[in-house]
Every structure is written in C-alpha cells, then in structure tokens.
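Example 9 (inverse folding). The structure is encoded as follows.
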C-alpha cells in the first residue's frame, strides 16, 4: 500500500452504490487525491456522490468532460453492465484503461465492449473506504495492471493474480469474505448468549473480539503466530480450537462458503 495517491489522470466511475461509495470514500481520504479529476456516473444521489461533489468531483459528466479520462471503473451489477457502459465506451480516449470490480464478468467480454481498450479486473473489499482494503488484480496487459494498481494501492493491498480464473477464489477469500467473518462473529455472540450473556454484552464482546483479531495481525504477523500468542498451553483457547477442529468443522464451513461463492461467480460469468 502507498501513503499518497500517485495516479495523474482523470478517473471515471460508473456505479456509486455500496462498493462504488466505498471506493469514493477511500480516494477522498487518500492524501494527494484530486477530487476535481473524478467523474461519477450514477442514477441516484448518494451520500458518496454528495461528498465527492462537495470536494470538486463532477457527477454525471457530459461526453466532452470524459475526454481526459485515463481510467474508467465499472462498479455496477453484472446484470446491467452492458447498458451502463454503452454510452461511454466510445467517448473515452483510445488508450484509456478500463477497470472492472464486477464479480463474474469476463475480461474478454469487457474488452470487446470497449473496442479493445486495455482492461484490468479487480476484486476489492469494502474496507477500501477506510483505506484498509485488499484487492485481487488480474490483467494480461502491463499498462492496465500499472494504472489499476496505482488507482487502488492507496486504499488496498493489491494482490496480483496470474490467471483470470483466480479472481473467483479471490472473491470467496476476500471480496465476499468479510461477510463470512461477520456471520461467524454473529454466531459467536449467539453462543455467548446461550452461555448466559445478555444480548448487548454478547454483541459488544464479539465485536471487540473482531477488532482485537484484526489489530493482532495489523503489523503483518503470520496467522499461526497470532493464534499461538493467544492459545496458552492447556488453556481455554486451545480447548476451543480443538473443538473447532473436530471433524474439520471450521475448515468445512470455510470451504463450503468459498466453494459456493466461487460457483456463483462462475455462474455469473456464463
Ligand atoms: N458490495 C461489495 O462488497 C462488493 C461488490 N463488488 C462488485 O461491485 C459491483 C457493484 O456491487 P454493489 O456496489 O454491491 O451494488 P449496488 O447495487 O450497491 O451498486 C450499483 C450501483 O450502480 C448504479 N447503477 C445501475 N445502473 C446504472 C447506470 N446505467 N448508470 C449509472 N449507475 C447505475 C445503481 O444505482 C447502484 O447505485 C458488482 O458487480 C459486485 O460484483 C465487488 C467486490 C465487493
Ligand atoms: O456479493 C457479491 O456478489 C459481491 C461480490 C463480492 C462481494 N460482493
């Protein structure tokens, strides 16, 4: 990750919903990002479009205003991407890069829709909003990889992938996975309630556990070391970990969630 925003070009974003808003918040929070170079295409007013507009961004630009765009980001739903992109496919410069964060939409299909312009695909998490995201990146094109990396590296750890198909497991392990982790934390809170905690206390403690777990690896510590630091020999953590491992329970749940996400991503790409 980098401390400052280094990409020196106009940026256009189509779709400012949940992920698009997170991207906008992340860019606006990155030192050196020039909001007056951001153009957002979105059919509704959102708090992110308002925030971006107040900072100097253009909302729903004219074709003329798209002429200096060096990168066009697609953050719409897979079902509507062709109609959302169509009005802009020909107005952006011939050498503009197109970056898609959509799950399951194939790079070749996007490249054809934008007249062969270089395309990168990324799979980020919504924590880009807090500049603490991660994003898998694939592109066969060096320029697209470089421009997309520069666009995301102020708000995400950009992880290069060697093949497009690897974006599907990246969706399961990163893009969707924060929701899987929240589901586990919710289950922990319910288990605490079953052991006698009041609901409020159970949720506060479980959320605190999530914060503590994230803080414990924020310096890049290995997951194994982080586990060992908490699991005293013969103690409560080891007892809990052993229970999680009975019949491969934790691994089975993770495998089921990732496989289902991968299967859905493959399904979307058909
Ligand atoms: N939500 C997440 O955590 C992540 C989402 N993604 C990908 O991001 C993409 C967007 O997902 P979300 O943000 O969750 O969906 P969303 O439904 O919250 O946002 C999509 C936005 O696109 C806008 N839109 C639709 N048609 C439009 C058009 N013709 N012109 C302009 N704007 C238009 C909608 O008004 C909406 O605000 C999806 O392809 C998804 O696979 C990827 C990683 C994480
Ligand atoms: O649920 C979805 O389809 C999107 C892609 C990854 C996270 N959210």
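The amino acid assigned to each position is listed next.
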């Amino acid at each position: 990750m980098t401390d400052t925003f280094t990409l020196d070009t106009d940026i256009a974003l189509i779709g400012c919903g949940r992920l698009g808003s997170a991207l906008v918040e992340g860019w606006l929070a990155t030192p050196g990002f020039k909001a007056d170079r951001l153009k957002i295409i979105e059919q509704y007013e959102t708090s992110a479009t308002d925030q971006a507009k107040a900072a100097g961004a253009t909302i729903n630009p004219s074709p003329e205003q798209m002429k200096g765009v060096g990168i066009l980001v697609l953050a719409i739903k897979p079902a509507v991407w062709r109609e959302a992109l169509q009005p802009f496919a020909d107005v952006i410069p011939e050498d503009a890069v197109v970056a898609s964060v959509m799950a399951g939409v194939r790079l070749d299909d996007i490249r054809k829709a934008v007249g062969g312009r270089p395309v990168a695909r990324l799979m980020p998490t919504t924590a880009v909003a807090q500049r603490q995201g991660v994003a898998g990146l694939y592109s066969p094109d060096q320029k697209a990889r470089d421009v997309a990396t520069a666009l995301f590296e102020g708000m995400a750890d950009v992880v290069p992938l060697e093949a497009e198909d690897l974006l599907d497991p990246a969706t399961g392990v990163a893009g969707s996975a924060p929701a899987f982790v929240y589901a586990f934390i919710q289950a922990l809170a319910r288990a605490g309630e079953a052991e006698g905690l009041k609901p409020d206390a159970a949720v506060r403690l479980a959320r605190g556990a999530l914060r503590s777990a994230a803080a414990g690896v924020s310096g890049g510590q290995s997951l194994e070391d982080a586990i060992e630091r908490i699991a005293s020999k013969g103690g409560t953590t080891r007892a809990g970990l052993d229970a999680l491992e009975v019949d491969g329970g934790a691994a089975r749940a993770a495998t089921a969630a990732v496989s289902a996400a991968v299967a859905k991503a493959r399904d979307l790409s058909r």
